[in-house]
Write a structure and sequence with these properties.
about 110 residues, mainly beta, 6-stranded mixed beta sheet, 6 strands, about 0% helix
Length: about 110
């Protein structure tokens, strides 16, 4: 299992922030499942056009559950030192062809 951390937990959506629609483009790391001892879940990788700089940004996304949810994220824009990173809302583009079903979690028993 990878010793990194899962994607940032969702924070309360803020409707005044711009909305970016994302597409699942790959799979990320395995993480211990918080609600199922002895199991791990796989995180998806999403890609979206940043509403601030227009560049493609990638984030982690938890599969399953409410895949129609909206999350607030920090932009990955290259900003001058000391400038705060802007926030935006992210939702999956339900019309996009994702590499995996966003509504289905990918699980396995822990290997340790």
């Amino acid at each position: 299992m990878t010793e990194s951390t899962p994607s940032t937990p969702a924070v309360e959506p803020q409707p005044e922030l711009p909305l970016a629609l994302a597409k699942i483009v790959g799979l990320g790391s395995w993480f211990r499942h918080p609600d199922r001892p002895g199991w791990e879940r796989r995180e998806a990788r999403i890609e979206l056009a940043c509403p601030y700089c227009g560049e493609l940004h990638r984030h982690g996304w938890t599969l399953g559950g409410a895949h129609t949810r909206t999350e607030t994220r920090l932009a990955h824009c290259q900003l001058p030192a000391g400038e705060p990173r802007p926030q935006y809302r992210v939702a999956l583009d339900l019309a996009a062809r994702h590499v995996v079903d966003p509504g289905q979690p990918i699980l396995r028993r822990c290997r340790r």
